[in-house]
Amino acid sequence: MADYCDLAPTHPFHQPYHDNEYGFPVTSDDSLFERLALEINQAGLSWLTVLKKRAAFRQAFDEFSVVRVADYGEQERQRLLGDAGIIRNRLKIDAVIHNAGVIRDLQTEHGSFKHWLDYHHPLPLNDWVRLFKRTFRFTGPEIVNEFLMSTGYLQGAHREDCPVYAKIVACRPAWVDT
């Protein structure tokens, strides 16, 4: 069975993500929030659907500014539910808004979302899943696993024989030092 390293090359949406983002360390809280929000929205759908809608998501969610999205109220929620450019699922939209507020609180308590992640790293996946379920909404095992792999906290985004693997290792993601 083919995996992402086999499917992504030459694909107009998958290749740029695979080659330049997937598995690389992410340091910006807004970028980490975006990745979590996209993983939540992917649940039950294809990753290609999310990648095709990514620009619309960025526009709809104020470039995934944690500060702005955490302050969304009912007016913004209704705007998002009416936005045909994104995935209009009330549970997912509510989770993204709620999780922005959680991340804002984590920033206050830990200095940043990234510092919170670093504080808990390394954990086995099952412990990460429990932690995320206690902390965030709409974060099951697959979402947590993909979020952590995609942001460099867990190994497995690329096969070792994939050319991108060496580029990621050179960036020293969190899993390299564990």
TrEMBL record:
Alphabetized InterPro entries for the sequence: Adenine_glyco, DNA-3mA_glycosylase, DNA_glycosylase
Source taxon at top rank: Bacteria
Gene3D superfamilies found in the cross-reference section: Hypothetical protein, domain 2
The protein's name: DNA-3-methyladenine glycosylase I
Record organism: Modicisalibacter luteus
